[in-house]
Amino acid sequence: MIARAAIAALLLACAAAATAADPVPPSGETAPGMSALDMRLKRLEAELRCLVCQNQTLADSNADLADDLRREVRSLALAGKSDGEIKAYLVARYGDFVLYKPPVKPITWMLWFGPFALLAGGGAIWWTVLRRRANAVTPSATTADNTGEMRAHKLLDGEDDVAA
Amino acid sequence: MKTLRWSIPLAIFAILVAFLWVGLSRDPREVPSPLVGKPAPEFALAKLHAPNETLTPGDLKGKVWLLNVWASWCVSCRVEHPLLVELAKADIVPVYGLDYKDEPDAGRAWLAQHGNPYTDSIVDRDGRVGIDYGVYGVPETFLIDKTGIVRYKQIGPLTPEALKQKILPLVRELQR
After folding, report:
1. B58 Cβ partners below 8 Å, 6+ apart?
2. Among A75-79, A153-157, B95-99, B154-158, which stretch is predicted with the lowest mean pLDDT?
3. Looking at A103, A118, A149, which one is the last position of a domain?
4. Burial class (CB in 10 A: 0-12, 13-18, 19+), A134
5. How close, in Å, is residue B91 to chain A by CA atoms?
6. Contact residues, chain B, for A64 at CB < 8 Å
7. Residue A11 domain-assigned (yes or no)
8. Terminal C-alpha separation, chain B
């Protein structure tokens, strides 16, 4: 039971970590006085990677290139391009790497579905092991440990004084 | 069943090691360019040494050429520069320079000081053309074929190995 509780706690912790790692800020999180465009750009830039300092988003980076790309994103947005079109524009130049959230396609299947496959595989192994163990326990109790049986025989034969 | 008990975890471990090994030996700075195999993006930029003239990729149709992105402020450009000068002397493939986010005066002075390997340099002051080429770490070098298709991209300074093992063999193949 302790093991089971520990696994449950671990799974919960993983789930919490996964949501905490999400680079996209909740859409409600905006400073007052920001225009709709600024809010949209801020959200979009948080989904784009700065190529120079690779672990920062375009929104967070102070790199010169990030400045240029923010300007580019703004001018595309002002030209009426949708978020998808702006992302496609950057992907055509810098590759999928600019997206913090990689697209689902055959080459990223492992990335997207691998963890679930591992979890399912681990779960299947766990389940079979538990079942085998349960099957193994029932017969061994009667055969390997026969002192109880012997005692029962003794009792039935009236040789023991325990009943008295 | 006994062998399965240790061979399966061992196999999983081996696969993990293989993945991590390959992952560690890769340079995360080298992002594969989606441009390779696609037409070189268009531009029409003023030449560094003849500001009234412009150069476009169309002018170079029929030629195999290198586009080297450089700048006077770029420190690692100094590392690769002697190699470029040598390459220009060997006259194997024309090298064009894209002076990226640079003051033209500073660019000209830099070339006067370090030698000018470029058939022509063009000036990309605001870095717009750099964005079209997916430039994110100067120096970068593109190899463009006779039909204007990008065939190779070197991120960071050119090295003698990259030149000898990848770029020059590809140049010879494309020049045929």
Report:
1. B42, B148
2. A153-157
3. A103
4. exposed
5. 31
6. 101
7. no
8. 60
Q: What's the ipTM?
A: 0.79
CA–CA separation, A96 vs A92, rounded Å? 8
- B142 contact A CB<8A: no
Domain architecture of chain B: domains with CATH: 37-175 (3.40.30.10)
Residue B104 forms contact with A (CB below 8 Å) = no
What is the extent of the structural domain holding A120?
104-136
In terms of domains, do A60 and A114 share one? no
What residues contact A70, with CB distance under 8 A and at least 6 apart? A41, A45, A58, A59
Which residues of chain A make contact with B127, given a CB cutoff of 8 A? 65, 68
Both tokens assigned to B67: 């586009």
Residue range A56-93, pLDDT digits in tens: 888 888 888 888 999 999 999 999 999 999 999 999 99
**Are residues A58 and A111 both part of a single domain?**
no
Is residue A44 in some structural domain?
A: yes
Chain A residue nearest residue B34, CA to CA: A95
Per-residue pLDDT tens over the stretch A132-151? 988 887 655 555 567 777 88
Q: Report residue A31 as tokens.
A: 């400073």
pLDDT for A144 equals: 54
A41 and A94 housed in the same domain: yes
Please tell me the distance in Å from A6's CA to the nearest CA on chain B.
Answer: 22
Of the two residues A114 and A162, the one the predictor is more confident about is A114
Statement: the pTM of the whole predicted model exceeds 0.80: no
Phi, psi of B171 (to 5 degrees): -60, -50
For residue B55, the cross-strand partners are B45
